[in-house]
Amino acid sequence: MTQYTSDLLRLLDERGYIHQMTDAESLDALAAKEVVPGYVGFDATASSLHVGNLVSIMLLRRLQQAGHKPIVLMGGGTTRIGDPTGKDEVRKMLSDDKIESNIASIRTAFERFLTFGDGPTDAIMVNNHDWLGQLGYIEMLQKVGTHFTVNRMLSFDSVKLRLEREQPMTFLEFNYMILQGYDFRHLSQDMGVRLQMGGSDQWGNIVNGVELSRRMDGTDVFGLTTPLITKADGTKMGKSVSGAVWLNEDMLPAYDYWQFWRNCDDRDVGKFLRLFTDLPLDEIARLEALEGGAINDAKVILANEATKLCRGEDAAKAAEATAAQTFAGGGLGDDLPTLEVGADGIRLNAACTALGFTGSNGEAKRKVAEGAVRLDDAVMDDPGFLIEVPAGTSIKLSVGKKKHGILKAI
């Protein structure tokens, strides 16, 4: 690893966050002598961010831990356009009210990871609609458009790959990189921001902002990206078999969030502990060296620590207790997903689908044929079996080794 003088870059380097930087030596020197305000941008396309956004959130947490000022930039303006990076389809337009509602909901997750306030290293949240919404079109063309060439814009992967796949790209989306570059320039001028961070797919957009600040104002600002975070099986972070792993409780129960980390691949344990927990590095080294069944102890610690950061210590403890009851004792943990069943009962395949364990009744039928579906640990062979739950009782429904739910009478 490179020998850095600043606590910030040493911390980021040791934990595996650094992929690219625009001027590592100058950024290192700056971070060693003064508080560096740095930001990451997030668009508000849903009411919650997901695990795929978590490495960027942790970047801001590390920035604050190293004595610098994190700025959460919510894309109230850019959400109205859509980032074309990695997309083949035009983003659906959201209403102003929906965007504002999403931002308010997303903030609740950030409040778990960052300390907000008015101090020099306290986090703040800003909305780029506050300045992009006031920028006239002619003014934008004159002030900013002259610093971008179409030749250069066509060379960025976000545009080039879309065109190579012959997928339509609207002029609206084509402007996204200009507005993101302007965000950096505005934050630099208005708030003294010196650093933009993000995933590796944002490198081109970040470099645009660095260059725009230099050309318009002669200001030196910096960019830093993280490597693409994938799981050992090659899939992207943020997705599970049953869908997105949302950060907000109302989008995903704490038990399911805990299980996502508990079920990670053995090969991912060390990397995830470094990136997504605050455990000391020597403790992480000990845990990732565990072999055989002992690696499961490290996974429980990973699940507890990651859940504690996102959902709180009580949620982590409850999820662990539920898992222990379910897997070790064969009991019914309080945090398991629950389906209320009426007096008429419910068919086995429909119950599997209603709990989200299968994507359709057809998939449930296949799972039953594989012997993967159990009621109170008894293997079922009839997908049309009518489950009736007597009043005051409950039944455990399991699909495979990792999906468990409770059926209870209304």
Automatic annotation (TrEMBL):
Which residues are L-tyrosine-binding? 39, 176, 180
- Gene3D superfamilies linked to this entry: HUPs, RNA-binding S4 domain, Tyrosyl-Transfer RNA Synthetase
Subcellular location(s): the record lists: Cytoplasm
Residues at which ATP binds: 239
Q: Which reaction does it catalyse?
A: tRNA(Tyr) + L-tyrosine + ATP = L-tyrosyl-tRNA(Tyr) + AMP + diphosphate + H(+)
Place the motif 'HIGH' region on the sequence: 44-53
Top-rank taxon of the source lineage equals Bacteria
Which named protein is this? Tyrosine--tRNA ligase
Q: Give the organism, scientific name.
A: Novosphingobium mangrovi
